[in-house]
Amino acid sequence: MLTHVVRRLEATRNFGRLEVEVMVATTVNTADDPTESLCSDLGVRCFRGPVQDVLARYVAAAADLSNRDVVVRATADNPLYCPLRTAKIIASHLHRQADYTCIRNLSYVVPEVMQVGALRTMASLARNPHCREHVTPYFREEANEFRVEMLPERWQGLRPETLLTVDTRKEYERMTRLFCALGEHGSLFPLEEIYNYCDQEHIAGFTQRTLEPMRRDRKRSAA
Hints:
Layout: H1 2-10, E1 20-27, H2 33-42, E2 45-49, H3 54-61, E3 70-73, H4 83-96, E4 100-103, E5 112-115, H5 116-125, H6 129-134, H7 137-141, E6 148-151, H8 169-182, H9 191-200, E7 219-222
């Protein structure tokens, strides 16, 4: 799954003049040694930091970036990030000069975008353990002075009712079937094909019944 996340984020380069570096930010636990080994095989950097304080891990992973650089937050339980829409949300973020941009209620297929300077400032203010563990709730839930852009749930044709995440064994099995069905010519199939497949396989559980000008600064995607 991590391989799919990395390759899909790297494919963002195909949809704009983006200098994208993908980095995997994992823990210092020995259980994550295989993750570091996989990153080496994939040719991407791996940063290892705190287990519980994931926000501190993100800040440390971005230590070599300037405040005006951009961090794209993607999570490894969502293997179907859309490269096209990822490029578009980065473009929207930069155009609006936001500190933080996301899809309202977050998305399984479009990551979050934030300025490094805003990330650092937010990390100095966030004290709640929930915010420290889940990285970005402070931007969305706290009254603050950050310039926050929340795009509509159905932005660019998104379908929030379609479950494209993996948190359980059953979801992993469904996702495996999806990749087997669509991956004959590679794993970077477009989101539209994914939705079409899910429409056909809705009985198998893909449909959730209850909803919930470009600068050439460096962009870093952290998975």
